[in-house]
Every structure is written in C-alpha cells, then in structure tokens.
Amino acid sequence: MASGGFVVDGRTVTLADLTCPILYYVGSRDEMGRPGSVRGIRRAAPRVTKMYEVVVKAGHFGLVVGSTALTMTWPGVVAWIKGELPANAIDVRADDAPDPLRREETHDDDDDHEEDAFDLARELVGKTAHAALERLEDLGEDLGAYLDNARWQLPRVQRLKNLQDDSLISLGRTLADQAAKIGDRTFFLWRGRAFTYADANRRVDAIVRGLIACGVRAGTRVGVMMKSRPSHLSVVGACSRLGAVSVMLSPEITDDVLARALDLGEAEVLIVDPETAARARAATSIKVLVLGGVGDQGDLPPGMTRPPRVIPPGVIDMETIDPAAVTLPAWYKPDPGRARDLAMIFVTSGKHEAPRATRITNRRWAFSALGAAAAATLTTRDTVYCCLPLHHPSGTLVASGSALSGGARLALASRFEPETFWDEVRRYGVSVVYYAGEMCRRLVDAQPVVGEKNNPVRLFAGSGMRPDVWKRLVDRFGPVGVLELYASTEANAVLANAAGKKIGSAGRPLPGSAQVAVAAWSFTDDDFVRDGHGRLLHARLDEPGMLIARLSHAGSDVAHIDPKRLICGAFDPGDTWFVTNDIFEVDTVGDYWFVDRKPQMVMTRMGAVASTRIEDALYGCPSVALAIAAGLPDGDHQIPIAAVQLHPASSLDLAALSAAAAALPEYARPRRLRIVEKLPLTDGFRPIKSGLRDLAQAAGPNLYLWDPHAQRYEAADAAERRVG
User: Fold this and answer.
1) Range of 703's domain?
2) In whole angstroms, what separates CA 435 from the centre of its chain?
3) pLDDT at 148 over 50
C-alpha cells in the first residue's frame, strides 16, 4: 500500500486517495511491524490533514493484548471512536512534528541490531545507494531483497557486452519474454487502470493480426502519430513483433509539415488516434488507420462523456477487425528483429526548423533500455513514471524501454503537469521518475503542495538537468537521488552519473557501451585538431572538445547513420567513429561533463563561450523562469544575446538580472536581452533557440542593452536616446 496499492478488477486502490482523519499506533519494540514501516502512513496518505500517532512501549502482540493494551491501546481507540483525541497522541501534521524521513529514536536497546544491519548495508552497497538507504526503514523495505539488487543488474550489463549483429533482440521480443516470465505482474498503469504483461502481450498479438489484415508486412514503414496512451505502446510493440519499422511523429505536427515528415520517414501507412483521423486523411494520400479510443474518456472532466466515435470515410478502423478471423500467413515469424535491424525512426515535428529523422536499430533500443534499467537499478519492485511523450526518444527508448526490460511497472501520464505530478506519483507508488531538459525546473518552480516532501520517489533519472535545478530538487523533495544520463542519438554510447555526487556531470560510459573519446576541436577552424599524420588528437583534461563514439559494429551501424556524422581512421587505420556534435570535457578522474551543442557555442572575439554557461548565469536571477542564449553575428565574431521568461508572479528586476550577467566575463555577457512572455520548448523540454536572433534584433518593448560603463542593463529606447 506504500508503493502504489493493490490492483482490484484492473483498477488501482491506494492509500493516497484517503482524506479521513487517521490514528495509528507504533509499537516501539515491534519486530514485525517496525516503527519506520508503520510511520510510512504519513507519506502513503499525504492528503490526510489530521493524523495522529501514539507510541506504545510494546511488541507486535503487546499492542493488542496484555496490560499495556488494556490501559493504552483500547481506551485510546474507544476515545477516537467517540470523537475524542487519545492521551499521548502526537499531531504528526504539526509544523514541529518529527521528520518521518529521519529515523526517530525509541530509546530501546532491542533496536541496536537494526542499526548494525543498516550500517552493514551502507558499507556493502556503497555511495550510489546512499539516498535509498536513508529511507529504507521508512519504506519498510526488506534489507535482504535490497542487497540482492545487484543480481538484477549484472545480467543486463553482460547482455549489452555480448550483443552481436545477429543477436535476436527487440521491443516485441522483450515484451514476449516478460509475459512468459512475469505475465501476471502489472506492466503499465493508465488513469487508474492496470494492465499486466500478459494483457499487453495479448493486445500486441491482436494488433499484429490487424496490421496484417491491413497489408502491413515485415519491413513496412508504419507512421505512428498518436498521443501518449496505451495504444501507442501497443502499436510500436506490434510493429516490432511483425518486423515493421515504426516512424514516430508528434500528434501536434502541423498539416503543412506532415507530408514532408512522412516522406522523410518513408512511411507507407499512418496510424492515428480517432480524433485526428479526419485531419490525417486530408493531409496525406497514404493509407490511414485508426486504433484506440474505444471507451476512453481522455482528459474530459468528471461527468462529461466524449461524443460517439466517428471514423471519416477512407480511414480503416482497426478496432472493427476481429483478430480471430485473421489467418496468419506463412511468412509471419514473430519477433524476427536482430540487433542490426532498423527498429524505429523518430521524426522531429519541424515546428521551428526542418523535420529531421533519427534512425534507431534494435541494438540502439537495447542499449537505451537495458542501460537505463541497469543505471537506475530497476527491479520488479519499482514503478517508473513516464511523463515524456512517447513519440520522443526519451519516452520510448529510455522511460518505457527501461521499465519493460527491467520488469518494472510503467505509470503513463498523458502529459507533464506540475499540478497533478505528485498526485499521480503517490497514487501509483512511483519510485523512479524520468525527466528531460528543463522539465524538472517547472517542478521546483511550482507552488508547494501538501506532502510533496513525503513521497515514494527514490530516483529522478534523465538528461539535461542543470546544476541549480539538481540542488533545488534534492533540497525540496527530500532524500531523492539524481541519475544524469547521456545517450548519443545514433551510436550506442551511454554515459551515466551513477554515483550522483558530482552535480552536473554526465558520468562515465556504462559497461558494454561504445568507447567514447573527447577529441581536440578547433572552434576557430570549426574542425578537429590533427597531428602531422592526419590523426585526431585527444583533448587535454578539462579542455572542451568534440565527443565521438567508436562504432565497433561498423558494418551494421553505418548503414543507418548520416555519412557526414562519421569519421574513418580517426586514431587508428580502419577505425570508424560517430561525431555526436556535442562538446564535452573530461576531468582528472575520468568523468565527462557536457558543455554545449557545437552549433550553439558563441564565437566571441575572446574565443568560444558555451551558451549553457550564459544561461546558467542568468538563472542566478530569482525571477528568471527560462533562459536561452546564442550568438549574433558581428563581423568575424559573434556577440552574446539572450532572452528570458519571467516567473508569472515575478516582476522584472533589472538590477538582479544585471548582477547575474555581471558574474560572467565581460566578453560573455549578453549584449542584448529580450524579456518575453513565453519561450517555446521542444517535446524534450529544451528551449528552442532558432528565433532568438530575430527577437534580439527586432525593435519594440522589453529589449535591454548592456551598458559596459555602468555594468548594468538599460532599456533599449533609453539607451538610444542617451546615445543620441
């Protein structure tokens, strides 16, 4: 009940929904219901505002029988039923109540052996598990099961190391394997309903038959333009099982870009939600299929029902196909995917730039899924929360992929909303949350909610969390860990900050991951630095350079990678490396640090400056909600420019903004600063910078110029009047 509740008739039942007053008794010598476990009710029922604790110096049976029970327990229960507060009751919701996340002393000698056990656990598990161990007793975890966690991770790492071109591995095969091993366990949770691994596998098999009936074959490129819902997962799983290729598209893609995106992914069929069927049919000439939406009330308010499901002419409704009536052809072999085979294509929406396709092999999917599961130490006891869109690589490859390969539960959210985040986290008993970009900034900026610090989350995992957000997240939401990951788009390179101690670091390559290196890079020449033989040089320690990943399986991987991103004979004759276009540094002990995307580096007269460095400085101003920086051409160099979005409740504090910019070297301070109402974000919660130059150059209000003499910003119109 502290980790997501029971599943009854396919629905979750959890203590997180309780609101009535609660009285609980703690036996200070209870070896079966230990004090820390009993006190877990404080977190498990965060909506309860009236909660009281009575400590009884008794064991498990002494709580209810014997002289102590007759004088303390039962008289207190009688008083509670009468509406009175029992003697010795402590209001645990009071401001001065002891912290439930901290072990409270019971002053009993019988508890000494528990301390010894936990000291041993800390020594055995090491620093990476420190945050989880701090709350082991409160969560009522079994110590032996926790220490046994390593047995889950070693096979995953070993499997990554042993992957060959012909290895049979895919999303569909992994689901089938899990259904065979843990079929009765819950796989995913969706709006209060639970679906087992066996349920999900049967649904995938049924959709496979529907796809075959609609003419889809192995190798067919199938466009998937759906919202993040169970049907999306099922379609991608069915394509994998069939040997088809999923072409992932954002459901928010505009009509004028859709046709171009489909061409880029070479999609021959398009599967959509019922509500977008008419738009899809009008925008493309390829076959359009509809799946899902039967009995789904979506995001409608309680009491409202969705209009009848209407499928426009020229669109095939897959829900009307009877799977039992479809004869499987002789050519069909379930889960034929091998590591080298193309599994899916992610096509960016093209909302602010031309659409771009990223091709993912089964090997690449496996590295993300198994690598993230191992780095996050997922087991079948975990519940993963995915509030990232499934059409984005982070949602499908990392969040849902790691949950599937780890045998964990996957709680699907329609979208990320700070207002509902903690409610869903507690309702599902979420232990691991996957993030991307600036997602967690919205979480730490949101207004406090009841019980946000008393949560079941042990780990936030993802990529793109800045140091300031990292510190605020840990400080605000209790002893949670942060696992910063980095995964290259098309090579099998995965970095993980497993220890979580170096805030902001991307860590080191996972075992089995591709070999990586930071090559010396000339920002002036916009090219690698080479020796006299034309070979690349390694960047010095703490020197920014280009991150490259070696392709050990060049024959298979190269076929799906843009040749412009490859470099042959980099360090040795015959080697092949993938150019990530990401600038990194390596410190003295071998940890990697992300600096910036190469195209976003600002080439000032004093040298290259990372746009992320400028943005981090601007976040030093408390009123800044989002910040972006870029370079504006100025002769042979660039001048830094920036735009910021303020918090809704904040007003412009020009002095604080000026002080934040002044923390940068003179040449790195944004010369032009625009205050905007809202900065656009990608589906991966990263600010879009493509329109910044226009914002900085356009006339109008809310534009501020840096005055190098006064060391502050002033309004552009005032500066122009002064100069004039």
Assistant:
1) 601-723
2) 3
3) no
